[in-house]
Design goal:
Length: about 450
């Protein structure tokens, strides 16, 4: 894309959000509204991305913290024309200026490319027809159908209020021309603001043709003004994510109950049950089944994994054909090899588990290197923390651990070892032998339970 700079207006407070946070920092899919617009701008290979901030001071630039965005301040919000004017010193006359809005997050790259293309010769304006155009600036056309000007809702007469074609606010035009028009704006209108929309009539009187472009869908140009609209746009966004996955061969049981907050790659013949959250970078292979209510963040789920409901997985890899859950928590730094089984109420942290090993019930495995073919009995705990430092537990191949065992790390269990149930293992154990630490079972003859004393 040729010679474009993007101006993103993000100076408004968004008073209807009823929030201390500037509106453009509220998230959709876990990402600030204005960040969505910035990310879309990156797709355009723009010369510069210029953000106009104002309300809340530099909290917007500081939070976004992106060196590729040039921030300019609009200290007082005197109108959209005034806001754009603050950015103009950053643009060269021969560039195309593309105006976007920090609170209109779902605008698509394709639509913008189309707009920029039209702006190579003409003034390109993104408009839509709405059943209810109330509140928006209206596109006024002459008898020949050419755009003449925009009239804001508050300045419109009755006849103009009936116009259903509205200004989305998004436009692209030569920067040099825009600069000259902005200098001539005044604020003699119903709101006492410098309207960006007034430049359209100036362009027309300069003999410039106004080309209108329409977005593929209305959602693209919807702005966020309230928490209700925020939730609506979140819904649209998530629905389009689900649609994309379904088009790629994923079964999504209910597209309205899947949340994607990041970059997700999914293979073929994967089934995603309801209420799944996929966050950060998630890679899911082929033939994977994820049960209801799983939260998976920055993780790789290899081919053939069956994840039962209610699992949390973060910064971990689940090896091919493994079975996980229900109610399993796989924490950062964990790698499960293929064919492992991790059952209910099992927490695994910063550990490697080799092929075919099973931890099926009620266990905590932390800072552990576990070999292949291991079976960990119910209620086994690695005591990895001595109150000051973390220590590792090493478990060899084909180890069998009886239920309710504690491993006091650092400790090493030899290959093929068996640990008797209820053991507290404090020292390394030999290969292929039974180690147990509990006292011998005895029964005390004539022992009676205490009884309540009478008062
Ligand atoms: C604007 C358009 C209107 C269009 C509508 C689409 C003008 C005069 N009107 O109206 O034709 O139909 O958007 O939603 O342009 N902003 C600043 N600084 C300012 C003023 C606004 O950064 O001084 C930002 C706001 O934060 C907001 C955006 O610009 O993100 C639009 O401003 P807003 O006041 O909401 O414009 P509207 O009255 O909705
Ligand atoms: Ca608005």
């Amino acid at each position: 894309m040729s010679n474009v700079s993007v101006i993103i207006l993000a100076a408004g407070q968004g008073s209807r959000m009823k929030s201390a946070l500037p509106k453009v920092l509220h998230p959709i899919a876990g990402k600030a509204l204005v960040q969505h617009v910035i990310d879309t701008s990156y797709q355009l290979n723009a010369n510069k991305i210029i953000g106009v901030y104002g309300y809340g001071g530099d909290i917007v630039p500081k939070t976004i913290n992106d060196d590729n965005v040039t921030w300019v301040v609009q200290a007082e919000q005197l109108g959209t024309g005034h806001a754009v004017d603050q950015a103009m010193p950053e643009l060269e006359d021969n560039e195309t200026a593309l105006i976007l809005y920090g609170d209109v997050p779902l605008i698509k790259t394709e639509t913008l490319k189309h707009l920029i293309e039209k702006a190579q010769k003409d003034f390109a304006l993104l408009t839509v027809h709405l059943d209810d155009p109330g509140g928006y600036g209206r596109i006024v056309r002459n008898k020949a159908g050419q755009v003449e000007r925009i009239v804001e809702h508050k300045d419109a007469n009755e006849e103009e209020k009936h116009i259903t074609e509205i200004n989305t606010g998004i436009l692209a035009v030569n920067a040099g021309a825009l600069r000259s028009w902005l200098k001539r704006l005044d604020n003699s209108n119903a709101q006492g603001e410098y309207y960006l929309t007034d430049v359209i009539a100036m362009a027309v009187s300069d003999g410039m043709a106004i080309q209108t472009v329409h977005p593929e869908s209305e959602e693209e140009v919807l702005g966020v003004n309230s928490r209700l609209q925020l939730a609506e746009l979140e819904g649209f966004y998530q629905l389009s994510n689900a649609q994309r996955l379904m088009e790629q061969g994923v079964t999504v049981i209910d597209p309205t109950r899947l949340d994607i907050r990041g970059n997700v790659t999914v293979g073929k013949d994967v089934t995603l049950d309801i209420n799944i959250i996929l966050e950060g970078t998630v890679v899911i292979g082929d033939n994977v089944s994820i049960g209801a209510n799983c939260v998976i963040k920055d993780a790789t789920i290899e081919n053939g994994v069956v994840m039962q409901p209610m699992c949390c997985v973060e910064q971990a890899t689940i090896g091919a054909d493994s079975k996980v859950g229900p109610f399993a928590r796989i924490r950062p730094g964990t790698t499960l090899a293929e064919q492992t089984h991790i059952g209910n109420f099992v927490e695994i942290k910063n550990s490697n588990v080799e092929k075919g090993s099973k931890v099926n019930h009620l266990s905590y495995i932390g800072d552990t290197d576990m070999g292949a073919g291991v079976n960990i009995g119910a209620g086994t705990i690695t005591c990895n923390y001595d109150g000051a430092n973390k220590h590792r537990t090493e478990i060899g191949d084909n180890v069998f651990v009886g239920s309710s065992t504690q491993f006091i790390a650092p400790v090493k269990i030899g290959d093929g070892a068996t640990i008797g149930a209820g053991s507290t293992i404090t020292k390394d154990t030999p290969e292929n032998e039974l180690t147990l630490t509990r006292a011998k079972q005895t029964s005390i003859k004539g022992w009676r339970r205490p009884t309540k004393e009478k008062k």
